[in-house]
Request: fold
Amino acid sequence: MVQFMLIIQRRNKGFSVIEILISVSLIVIAFITFLSIISLSLKSTRFAENVNKADFLARELIEAARSFRQGTGWDSNGLGVLDTDTDYYFSLTGSNPPDWVINPGQENIGIFTRSIVFEKVSRDPITKEIQQTYNVSNDDPDTRKVIVRVFFDSKIIELTTYLTNWQ
Reply:
């Protein structure tokens, strides 16, 4: 009988080690899951922040184009004389108050690359609505399609608007 009790006691010691291993394994799995959820949350937050920054940079470029249009003559030194389907970006002059100046190419701001493109516009001769596809015979020389693109992390934010010769 005494020998039987010793065997039972030895089995209980081995069983408690297995319980500890299972408990530690469950805790480690829960901790790893928790860390991966935090990591995914941080990546999502960073991506949303970058999308917001890219949207701001795109909207800023559209506002710069509006300001540039207002400070120039459409057909002399303004939007009407710019090459179409060419990348541009704006920069501020050092004058007081500063003015927007247009430059060829793309602008790099941290992880973002942005540019603005102007395209010719045609209008339906009857409805005067802007046509989806440019038709040279219905050219509207006083309107430009404005496309702003901001690139980051293999993503692109694109905004489109139209500017007219309002003067």
Summary: Residues 2-70 form the longest helix (69 residues). The chain has one domain: 2-164. Strands lie at 88-92, 100-104, 107-109, 112-122, 139-152, 155-164.
